[in-house]
Amino acid sequence: MMDLHTHTIYSDGIGMVRDNVAWAEKRGLKIVGISDHIHYFTPSKFSAYINEIRIAKEESDIVVLAGIEANILENGPDITDEFRKRLDYVIASVHEWFGRDGAHMYIEYVKRAIMDDNVDIIGHFGNSFPWIGYPTEEEIREVLELAEAYGKAFEISSRYKVPDLEFIKECIRRGIKLSLATDAHRPEDVGKISWSLKMFEKAGGSKEDLVFSEYL
Ligand SMILES: [Zn+2]
Ligand SMILES: [Zn+2]
């Protein structure tokens, strides 16, 4: 299996890249992705990050991927072409706090990320809905249609327990890819994807519905 959303000391995690990889190996994953928060990086720190992941890739028996977690801001996700071309994949997540009745804004932000060429996966979609309110069915449908049209994936987040089962089923029905993700900030949490896997299986997903399924 896979865990495509993990953090290290390059952002707000507490482990090294190799610690995350070691736990992924221990838990029997086939793929682990490192995806630190983009706003922690200067260009030189980013180079060190890419280099450290490359070394981990070479040393490990499992597939180690270089990712990043970008923020979806008012004008779109903060991922640049320069960063994107050195990465295997990019997660884009809404981290802004919209307050009550903010679901409409949240949806608009996610749509901007889906339409961005540098984005591959939408992170923890809907994790703030319990506080900002839920989008309408129409808005959810628009997001799904756009993701289908642009070939973008959604992660199933064990940390936030999103998206819901209906949404995951609809992704599978439309051929929208999914990823399994812990959002681990401690190495020992890497690979604890049981909630994601359970939801994926309940929704009737099979290997081909996952991103990077060629490595599974
Ligand atoms: Zn996040
Ligand atoms: Zn994260």
Automatic annotation (TrEMBL):
Name used for this protein in its record: Phosphotransferase, php family
Domain of life: Archaea
Lineage of producing organism: Archaea, Methanobacteriati, Methanobacteriota, Thermococci, Thermococcales
Gene Ontology MF annotations: phosphoric ester hydrolase activity; zinc ion binding
UniProt GO cellular component terms: cytosol
Organism: Pyrococcus abyssi (strain GE5 / Orsay)
Residue span(s) of domain Polymerase/histidinol phosphatase N-terminal: 2-74
One Pfam family here: PHP
PANTHER family linked to this entry: PHOSPHATASE YCDX-RELATED
